[in-house]
Amino acid sequence: MKNKRRDFLKISGLAGLTLASEGVFGGISSHSNNFDGSGLDPVLNADKIQQHQQRVNEQIKLDFEKARSILNPSQKQLDHGIELHKNSLVIDVYGFMPRASNDGALLSAAITSKASQLEIQDMQEDMSMSRFVIDKKERDEFQNAWKASGVTCVIQNAGEEGNDVKRLLKRLAHFTYTTDMMRDFVGKAVSPEDIIQAKKENRHALYFSGNGIPLPQDWISVEDELRYIRIFFQLGIRMMHLTYNRRNVIGDGCAELANGGLSDFGRSVVREMNRVGVIVDIAHSGWQTSLEAAQLSQRPMVASHSTVASVNHHIRSKPDNVIRAIADTGGYIGICCIPRFLGETGDIAAMMKHIDYVVKKFGSDHVAIGTDISYTSQFAREENRKIPSYPQGRTRWEALWPVDNFKESPEMVQSMSWTNWPLFTVGMVQMGYPDDVIQNILAGNALRVAKAVLAV
């Protein structure tokens, strides 16, 4: 049993997280969980075991221990949850793959030579989203964080917030480059079958979200304005935000006090997304915009990274009537990991309350986890110290956030670390959910929606 336990720790990518005399993860069973009807063999050969050994850094260990202490599961619940997580396909329905640190010396040189604020921003984004392609130290960090999380696929924010075509293309290029250059580890998925295949082959995948509707903004005709939705679909984008906090020509964002709902043009946008096969995402949309989009959509649609207003009232939450409308389309609400959106304790326990509310009121087919967070390289602090201070610009247009009195603590953030994904599964085991329900929340609901939207 000790040898099996040791091998399991190596395979799962959580070696070293021994928190009790018998070890956190206990034993490993011989069964395989069927996430797509075919199952996976959880037993890997010696070469695979060696390949997936990793150096878990101290911060990952501390984050794990903080979340575990908050949940305080029994050893049986912990063992079962960790094993179930390892054997399951896991999809972060909105988030970010691990991020690299900046190259402090390069940024310092750019700042010293009077680079523009836009150039500096572009350099920082490119480094955080693709530096691990060429830097071995960052690549090891990148891969280790993936393994520790047990996540198969991230529905990746691959477009900067807004509607400008060139702006959306820029960020998409970084992630396309990464998946082109590191396809043996993380590849671009364009269908649910690609995600399932990645799990079978012990790889990872990105399923792209555009974070905005691409509009040429020439305002010649409705048809002209809509034509880039299909272009971006052909580039691999499978989900798009209708709005991002502010009002745009489609509808009101979640931070607009007017809460005016969809425009006539916005209704055309939803219809075109349904036609092309792009998931409608109203995570950052106002409540009326969200409701009207759900009532109009002929395909399942989502609030990919949100919370439940009945548990904690926040502009980024969704009220019951909106969640019901989303569920009526066959879609889901993805519960995020942002402490101030979760409210109360703002930690992993608060997150479980949001999940449990949706399960009990709307059914387990209509909830998923969209973290809206990322793991950042442990070398980021060291690199950032090399960067001289430089003038900061004005608050960006999309950052329309009302002032609140919520006090976010380091402990909250620590418990919600992206590498704590296995403990999200443990939390659901604690709540008494059957394995098949947990696997639906981990990936099944996302696969179902993706298949239904693509089937046009």
Which key terms come to mind for this protein?
single chain, 456 residues, alpha/beta, TIM Barrel, six-stranded parallel β-sheet, four-stranded parallel β-sheet, 10 strands, globular
Between the first and last Cα atoms, what is the distance in angstroms?
50 Å
**Unreliable stretches:** 1-54
CATH class: Alpha Beta
Q: Helix/strand-derived class?
A: alpha/beta
Mean of all residue-level pLDDT scores: 88
Number of domains: 1
Q: Can you describe what's shown?
A:
- The termini are far apart.
- The radius of gyration is 21 Å and the shape is globular.
- Helix 12 runs parallel beside helix 13.
- Mean pLDDT is 88; it is low at 1-54.
- It has helices at 2-12, 46-51, 58-71, 75-87, 104-112, 117-130, 136-149, 165-181, 192-200, 222-234, 264-276, 287-296, 320-329, 339-342, 348-362, 380-384, 410-415, 421-430, 435-454; strands spanning 91-95, 153-157, 186-188, 204-209, 237-241, 279-281, 302-308, 317-318, 332-335, 367-369.
- The strands form 2 sheets. Strands 1, 2, 3, 4, 5 and 6 form a 6-stranded parallel β-sheet that branches. A 4-stranded parallel β-sheet has the order 8-7-9-10.
- 47% of the residues lie in helices and 9% in strands.
- The protein contains 19 helices and 10 strands.
- The chain has a single domain, classed as TIM Barrel, CATH 3.20.20.
- It is an alpha/beta fold and 456 residues long.
- The longest helix is centred in the last third of the chain and has 20 residues, at 435-454.
Write a compact overview of the structure shown:
With 456 residues, the protein is α/β, with parallel strands linked by helices. The protein has 19 helices and ten strands.
